[in-house]
Automatic annotation (TrEMBL):
Response regulatory domain: residues covered: 9-124
HTH luxR-type domain ranges (all copies): 148-213
Domain of life: Bacteria
Keyword annotations from UniProtKB, A to Z: DNA-binding, Phosphoprotein, Transcription, Transcription regulation
Protein name as catalogued: Response regulator transcription factor
GO annotation terms (biological process): phosphorelay signal transduction system; regulation of DNA-templated transcription
Organism of origin: Thermomonas aquatica
Record flagged with keyword Transcription: yes
Entry-annotated residues carrying 4-aspartylphosphate: D59
Coiled coil regions, renumbered to chain: none
Pfam families from the UniProt entry: GerE, Response_reg
One example GO MF annotation: DNA binding
InterPro entries, A to Z: CheY-like_superfamily, NreC/VraR/RcsB-like_REC, Sig_transdc_resp-reg_C-effctor, Sig_transdc_resp-reg_receiver, Tscrpt_reg_LuxR_C, WalR-like, WH-like_DNA-bd_sf
Length: 217
């Protein structure tokens, strides 16, 4: 079967209109003629799955909850929807809960539309829709290694950038605008940063950023 014939109905769930359009365009490029529905929140998406789509691209950081709840709802319906997470989060704290919820793919929003379309077309020949960095993370996760405490876990490059901007005094909205992501996504990064650094306030995080040389003390 050609890639174009794999899917005819899709759902794209993301709180940013431009990202929704980008994901929808990638689906249309991968599967010409596909019908794409759009949702900007978890509640809006839940209302659209009475007739479940064949494929869904789902953001995790939605304004009214996690996209994993939608994945779980689709799985409970046993509708056979191929659920693919499309997100900025590249850490274990988001990856593995999404996979446990039933996600069958996990792609990062760091690729151009054509690359994403190629990944989606690969579904037709059995390729898992996984960003290369996510595939490497999965392989590392299942390799034997000594157990480590979560405290002191290294920050990802995006978490480091969020910490640097936060330490400079930028608000959540300003950090979101600077990085081109949603305020809710920034909040999610900060939660993980606080956990990894074992801090509970912006001031403590700023001190840690200065200690790491990310900002001037």
């Amino acid at each position: 079967m050609s890639a174009a014939g794999v899917f005819s109905r899709a759902l794209v769930v993301d709180d940013l209109a431009d990202v929704r359009a980008w994901l929808a365009d990638a689906l249309r490029e991968a599967f010409p003629g596909i019908e794409v529905e759009l949702a900007g929140s978890l509640g809006e998406a839940m209302a659209k799955i009475e007739a479940p789509p064949q494929i869904a691209l789902i953001d995790l950081g939605l304004p009214d909850g996690s996209g994993t709840r939608l994945i779980e709802a689709l799985r409970r319906r046993d509708a056979g929807t191929l659920c693919i997470v499309a997100t900025v989060f590249d850490d274990d704290a988001h990856l593995f809960p999404a996979l446990r919820a039933g996600a069958q793919g996990y792609v990062l929003k760091d690729r151009d539309r054509a690359t994403l379309a190629d990944m989606l077309r690969g579904i037709a020949v059995g390729q898992p829709p996984l960003s290369s960095s996510i595939a490497r993370r999965l392989l590392r996760h299942f390799q034997p290694m000594p157990l480590q405490a979560d405290e002191g876990a290294p920050l990802t490059p995006r978490e480091t950038e969020v910490l640097r901007l936060t330490a400079k005094g930028l608000t959540l909205n300003e950090v979101a605008a600077a990085l081109g992501i949603s305020r809710h996504t920034v909040s999610g990064y900060l939660k993980d940063i606080y956990r990894k650094l074992s801090v509970g306030t912006r001031a403590e995080a700023a001190l840690e950023a200065a200690r790491r040389g990310l900002v001037a003390p």
